[in-house]
Amino acid sequence: MVFCLGPGAAQRTLVAHLRKAFTLSPLPRSAVHFTCYDTFDWRLHAAGLRLSSHEDDGATFLALRPIAGGEGAGGGKKLLAVDKIPSFASDLSQGPLRRRLESVTEVRRLLPQARVELSTIGYAVLDEREKTVVRIFFEKARARDPQDAWNSVDLAVALRVVPVAGYGKAQARLLAHLEGCRGLGHGDPDLAMRALVGLDREPGKRRSGLEGVLDPAAPVGQAFLVLQRGLVGVVGANEPGIRADLDVEHLHDLRVAVRRSRVLHRIFREEMAGTEFEALIVGFKWLGRVTGPTRDLDVHLIELLEQQEAVSEEAEALLPLAALLRERRQQAWSRLVDELDSSNYAELEVLAAALLDLPESDAAARMSRAGPPLGPWASLRVAKAHRRLVKHGRSIDRGSPDERLHELRIDAKRLRYLMEFFRSLYPADEIGSLVKALKRLQENLGEFNDACVQSELLRGLARDLDARGCASADALVAIGRLVERAEARKADERAAFEARFMRFEARETHARFRRLFGRGKTGGGRDQKSGAGRKPEGDEAESGGDNDASGA
């Protein structure tokens, strides 16, 4: 239990007040400094965990504990001594801490989020036999932002009550006494959280840019503004992480926002026609093109490292391949940073900010009144995208070229983006179950695409290594095995496609699409008895490539 001392409460006055009812014995003073870490998107916090580093007698320790346990004078078990703070979970030696961290943070960098300087004055509360029945600690803390030297704050003095096993009644009596003290309020037992809030760095969920709640009765142009403003925010939030090359997820999240924006521009093209917003189409198309090479190499490197770890006997033979990939990735990243420094990116930033600024932007004001009511319009768009996916999926058989599955993957991605755009218009559990069904199909199509891309890339890299004279016989043999595995995975996913697609277009899924997005507007009139499908209603073509190596 933690109490915070408000303006009307002073530590000395409170101690004097407690001495009238309890016997207090001073405890040694202590000073502790610790730093808490999390990823850019607060994955540890979302998992209910807190990672912190502590220094003790010149040694550095890492501690991972549940957030519910708090961090303060009560302390916590130091789990691992380290020579230096890891940048990634994979930097740690093999063991329980690394496994737990990797399962949550994956490839995200561990960033220092708050530095806390804590000093405590403690007292043991004694009974009539002078046995300690409960301990109290006055905590005085200062929080510093490791990422901004000018951002620091003194936290309110806190009183932490630490129980002693077997003395529950004594603790309850003390707590009841404290509840009646003026100027005391309940505080968060998690000192790290109090520090983050004080620094205005309160953990938030991973931003997708789709957090806005849409009004089904409002003109569709308002939805465009809400969605595009959110996606532009994601691009801006991840740009510094790309420039600093913190981790691969910054570029991934930016590219997802760019792809979503491009789909947004397609479905709102009528509302955008003839307006200044059309310039965004060109800008986002350019941004998608210049970010692609680096992202593709990120994906290939991750896959190669996973292969090296899974087949340890081939790890050494694959080192030249990993070195070549890293070299190419470094070159691609350097070119990407140059593009972010270019006038093209600066103009896109300025344009997006000016157009999306309400109420100053005349273009945004006009767009907010454009189009019919959102609700029926959104349902029609989702229904058409669903029909398109089903139509194209049914036309694929075992003899269809691989390109047909790649095109279907893009259809599935666009349908998912539409459903995510307009998610707030529908019951969460119903649309959520449909998105999950679609994701299962996307997993198959994405794995198939990744295997195709990886197979071709590995062949090209083997030729390049050979031309450089860097390819030993062992390296070429190891790369050949990787190609074989990629081809085998490709064949497995291709064989699994028919069953995955049939599950997605099952009667129950069709019925749920019709219920949610309008009867007769989805499903294509499938004959449920025979399994044969009539030709679905037509849908306009939506062109535009998506060359991301990842199927996500």
Protein described:
The chain is of the alpha+beta class and 552 residues long. It has 2 domains: 2-198, Hypothetical Protein Pfu-838710-001, CATH 2.40.320; 220-517, CHAD domain (Alpha solenoid). 53% of the residues lie in helices and 15% in strands. It is built from 17 helices and 11 strands. Strands 1, 2, 3, 4, 5, 6, 7, 8, 9, 10 and 11 form an 11-stranded antiparallel β-sheet that branches. α9 crosses α11 (343-356), α13 (374-394) packs antiparallel against α17 (507-517) and α15 packs across α17. The protein starts with a strand and ends in a 35-residue tail after the last helix.
Task: Give a nutshell description of this structure.
The chain is α+β, with helices and mostly antiparallel strands and 552 residues long. The protein is 53% helix and 15% strand.
Individual helix count: 17
Average pLDDT, all residues = 86
| Oligomerization status of the protein chains | single chain
Distance between the termini: 44 Å
Low-confidence stretches: 519-547
Relative strand content = 5-15%
Q: How many domains make up the 3D coordinates?
A: 2
CATH topology of the largest domain: CHAD domain
Q: What is the element string, with H for helices and E for strands?
A: EHEEHEEEHEEEEHEHHHHHHHHHHHHH
Shape: globular
Task: Give me the CATH architecture of the largest domain, please.
Answer: Alpha solenoid
Please give the largest β-sheet.
11 strands, antiparallel
Structural class comes to alpha+beta
- Assign the CATH superfamily of the largest domain: CHAD domain
Fraction in helix:
40-55%
Q: Could you tell me the number of beta strands? A: 11
CATH class (first level) name of the largest domain: Mainly Alpha
Radius of gyration: 29 Å
